Structures are given as C-alpha cells and as structure tokens.
Amino acid sequence: ALADAGPNDTVLDLGCGDGAIVVAAARRCGARGIGIDCDPSLLAAAEARAKAAGVSTSVTFICGDLFAADFEAASLVCLYLAPAFYPPLQDRIRARARPGTRIVSHDYFFPGWSPIKTELVRVSAAHVSQIFMWRVP
Hints:
By secondary structure, the chain is an alpha/beta fold. Helices cover 26% and strands 31% of the residues.
C-alpha cells in the first residue's frame, strides 16, 4: 500500500520467504510478482500460498541468489533483510534498476538515501515496524 502498487507493476521480493508480499500484491492489486529466496522449503510454502490465493499464474518464485535478481524487470522492489545486505544491494539496485523503480524496505534502510515516504506499522501488541520507500533516480 505504501508504494501504491497496481496492475501495471511487477513486484520483486528479495528474500521472499513464504511469498506473502508477492501473493498479496497479485491478489489485492493485480500486480505480477517475482519472489527470490535461497530456501527451497520456504519456496514450496510460497507456491502453496499462491495456489491457495488463486494467483499462481501471476507470480513466480525463484530459488537463487538475490544479488543475481533481474532488477530491470521490476517496477517495485521489496525487501526485509539483515542490515548487512543493504549496502551491496544499494549499489546493484542503483546500477541495474530502471529510473523511477520504487523500493520498499521493512525496518532497515539504505545508508545515505533519504526515503520519500515512511510509515509506522503495528505488527503486534509489543512491536511497531517502520516501512521506508525510495525511488531510483
């Protein structure tokens, strides 16, 4: 919602886990989705989630290295990764993503980039997360 995803978007979720983000984008917004993760058991759960939601033809899951992602295919990149991933991904995204691509991150941010939007989200009674959004120049 923060990135205003819609049917013309391709959402790339790096470290997609069980596929919740790309499945929600396909189901709620009509977007296409690509999820990348290195854990085959999580990807099996992602495939099952997509099938149960009726969006398995709109999403693709890839078992692989998120650094090898095709950033040019995405109009929206989502990530919720350990902070150590952000600096090397920042360089790859800057070099390979199309201008205007939106990037949304949960709790962690890119050093030196000022987000254009931020939002606080209560994820449980005891935890509030911060969501950041940037656009590739």
